[in-house]
Design a protein that fits this description.
The chain is mostly helical. The protein has one domain. It is built from one helix and no strands. The longest helix has 25 residues. The radius of gyration is 21 Å and the shape is elongated.
Length: 102
């Protein structure tokens, strides 16, 4: 069986699904578009670490505890966003674009 082309060749592009429709890929169960605060943009707070600091009180190059706290928050926010992206692509929770760990 030949594959079906979804595009009509329009220079404007091809749209798949409307905002209220459910979609899926690779035989997955169609789902509605995901929403939620975990999809928010991760903010880079430009935490600067002084790599030249050798003082033991500034362990790992942080000159303040606030820098370490901010870096920890940035990493945590990045993990949250990455997990949301993964969930949106997984067969059990998303549109079945990636297979996951199996």
């Amino acid at each position: 069986m030949a594959a079906q082309q979804l595009s009509d060749g329009s220079p404007e592009g091809t749209l798949l699904g409307r905002s209220t429709e459910k979609i899926a890929a690779y035989g997955g169960t169609p789902i509605a578009q995901r929403t939620g605060t975990s999809q928010a943009t991760v903010t880079d707070n430009n935490t600067t670490i002084d790599a030249g600091v050798t003082n033991a009180s500034a362990a790992f190059g942080f000159t303040t505890a606030a820098q370490l706290t901010q870096l920890t928050a940035d990493v945590s926010n990045s993990i949250t966003l990455l997990n949301e992206i993964r969930a949106a692509l997984m067969p059990t929770t998303g549109v079945n674009i990636i297979k996951g760990s199996a």
